[in-house]
């Protein structure tokens, strides 16, 4: 049976993780083994549980306890479930809850690049993509369009920020990912990958070029919003690739570009 606790004291420290801690505080860079994230909505929470993430506590609107959250409560019977009417929770958290339930969960240690990239065919590399909405959208496309893993450089927004999780619809728990150091190209080449920089250059290949789809192992490299990839990153890649466009449009948002590239180059064997 779920441990239901009605909220009577809104300043209770148990609610800090939901209402008063920033994303950076939850991430806990100094002690990442103690990091926490917030998953929102029953579907997203279920995907996190399926992926082996440990729940700490739930915050649920009282009208959801017998509704869509019931299945989650059944799977999390050993943790406290803090509850109040929906409008009260909206005041407490400062935002509208999607489907009325949040779950605080512990982060897991990140795998190594070698662990998630050995024996796979297609990976995405994000360089300094700092908007969590874009990171979440890229993960959703990666899951839908046959990317085997996502690699992120240090300046990228964390995939377990609440907004990134929500936009991804929980696919950040389904697609393997990790952060990489500055030598990621050498590591991918050692594992047999060729790298394709998505960049607007006169000598870029068309995304339709058959050489790309014929590559056994390919890493699709996407750059930061606005500036795109760093020149030195492009120079080190095996290919420079652009998406053919019309009506004098010169570029797409990085999330939209990722979906087009993954559709064309994904692993469909």
Question: Which key phrases capture this entry?
Answer:
single chain, 269 residues, alpha/beta, five-stranded mixed β-sheet, 12 helices, elongated
| Largest sheet: spatial strand order | 8-7-6-11-9-12-10
Give the class from helix and strand content and strand pairing. alpha/beta
Radius of gyration: 20 Å
Amount of helix: 25-40%
Please give the count of helices: 12
Q: Note the run of SSEs as H and E.
A: EHHEHEHEHEHEHEHEHEEHEHEH
Q: Can you tell me the overall shape?
A: elongated
| Biggest sheet details | 7 strands, parallel
Number of strands: 12
**Termini gap:** 45 Å
Structure description:
The protein is of the alpha/beta class and 269 residues long. Helices cover 32% and strands 21% of the residues. It is built from twelve helices and twelve strands. It has helices spanning 16-19, 23-27, 42-50, 70-75, 86-93, 113-117, 132-144, 162-168, 184-190, 210-213, 231-236, 254-265; strands at residues 3-6, 36-40, 55-61, 80-84, 101-106, 122-126, 149-153, 177-180, 194-198, 205-206, 218-222, 239-242. The strands form two sheets. A seven-stranded parallel β-sheet has the order 8-7-6-11-9-12-10. It has a five-stranded mixed β-sheet with strand order 1-4-3-5-2. The longest helix is centred in the middle third of the chain and has 13 residues, at 132-144. The protein is elongated and about 65 Å long.
